[in-house]
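Q: Hi! First time asking for a complex rather than a single chain. Here are the components, and I think there are two in total. Is that enough to go on?
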Amino acid sequence: DIVLTQSPDSLAVSLGERATINCKSSQSVLSTSNNQNFLAWFQHKPGQPPKLLTYWASTRGSGVPDRFSGSGSGTDFTLTISSLQAEDVAVYYCQQYYSSPITFGPGTRLEI
Amino acid sequence: EVQVVESGGDLVQPGASLRLSCAGSGFTFANHNMGWFRQAPGKGLEWVANIKEDGSEKYYVDSVRGRFTVSRDNAKNSLYLQMNSLRADDTAIYYCARGSPGWISDFWGQGTRVTVSS
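A: Yes, that's all I need. Here is the structure of the assembled complex.
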């Protein structure tokens, strides 16, 4: 199974500042067949369903504000929130869909 | 408007069975892979099972394989999760999610709560 680790476990950032969350995979999730990284980021707020932020490591999901951006390739990935807003308080998860079982990182709690 | 709505969650005793349902609307259900995920109390997200758009392929996490069965009825725009031999560690909120594109879970329902306790 592919194991994803995230850092930090939790993060406090001031409003308007940049937040950076890292995700490291135990093996590459870069497909040689389509040159895409099978890595997604989700935002999860209490009492709400998870929301897809990015997929293929850097493609933003539908309706996702452009302050959210994903980057990285192979085994190392980053989610960046360029200017933190109050509504961004949540737990953020990376997920690999390169191979079964689909796995998630343990989550990073983001606070103001 | 895309919607997926889960139902069927309940409080059951260990060893019992339960069937979860997920109704999709606002999209062509038969054109999408679908998946089940869960979140146990105080824990992170966990993938449970996936099913291909035509039902020809099914995948499970090891902890539920042989106990849970994922199925779908495209004529009814519905996804199911039959859960047998339930255990306390199956206690969680169960989410249904649409795959688009492929296995990327782009839209999730609000979830249904399953509690396994004596």
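A: Chain B has no helices and eleven strands. Let me know if you'd like any chain examined more closely.
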